[in-house]
Amino acid sequence: MKREYYDKDGREMSKEEVYRLPPEELEERSGIPVKVLPDYEKLYDAVAEMMVQFIQETGGKKVTMILPVGPTQQYPVFVKKVNERGINLKNLWTFNMDEFLDRNGRTIPESYPLSFKGDMMRNFYRLIRPELRMPLEQMHFPRHDNFDEIDEAFDTHAPDGVDLCLAAVGPEGHIAFNEDPNFNHVEVTEEEFLQDRTRLVLVKTSTVDMDALVAGCGDRTVIPPFAVTIGPHDIVRAKRTEVVFFAGQWHRTSLRETLFRKPTMHFPGSLLKIRKKRDGSFEKQNITVWTTPVESGTIFSKTMS
């Protein structure tokens, strides 16, 4: 499979050129705003401030957001700003990206350390001052038994796409738990993939290793084998997308693949550069990248001959 890379002017780039591009040229060559913060504390503060300002700019109108668990350190900072400034979140509606399922395909309990809902309740919802926070019913968490409910909630509350999607991109390019859908005997077209909505997925490839390192103390056996995820359809319909690269040097490849790779389901993060309109056609997405010098650095890997 040939990888295709292009700059903002449509000029084709080689993989080596993309990987060795100096960090200070990423924004200019990609045409995508790349905000490089000096350290992680300032990164999460900047992302939290962006979320606060986005809500305040609506003037109290309804706001819909897709939110990830990973990164998560911006949430307590966001809540601190909300509480200190007395920002009313009664009109905020959120959609969690995904959740783990056990080996029998059932949602892991909220008490399990890797529960995404559990994380959001501890580090987001319960920290908001009661008089400011939205009703819990306005936070939508995918489960093994509510696929249709999540899709209907998107259609009801965000018929033209959510107002803001906060995302990250995994080593295989996954957004939420959407990796390249083709494996073993399963063959999926790009058109089919972009129509996928809330669904069951197998947690595979390096996603297991990444989650084991980040959240499982290196123990792959604690990573549940299945997950439920919102699909590419609802992610790429967002009106605005903010992508955070936060996980160290291994995130360098994901960042550059996202910025320069031609949009493809074989690296789903590259699809964040396009927006699916209500009529099914596509346009350029309103996207910003947030990161630190660690993730924005050059890549010196080279395939051995």
Could you walk me through the main structural features you see in this protein, from its secondary elements to its overall organization?
The chain has 305 residues and is of the alpha/beta class. The chain has a single domain (13-295), classed as Rossmann fold (3-Layer(aba) Sandwich), CATH 3.40.50.1360. It has 11 helices and 14 strands. The protein has a 7-stranded parallel β-sheet, sandwiched between helices. Helix 3 (40-57) crosses helix 4 (74-85). The longest helix is centred in the first third of the chain and has 18 residues, at 40-57. The two termini are 18 Å apart. The relative contact order is 0.18.
Largest sheet: 7 strands, parallel
* Beta strand %: 15-25%
Number of helical regions = 11
Integer count of domains: 1
Strand neighbour order, sheet with most strands: 3-14-11-8-4-5-7
Mean pLDDT: 94
Q: Using the alpha-carbon principal axes, give the shape.
A: globular
Note poorly predicted spans. none
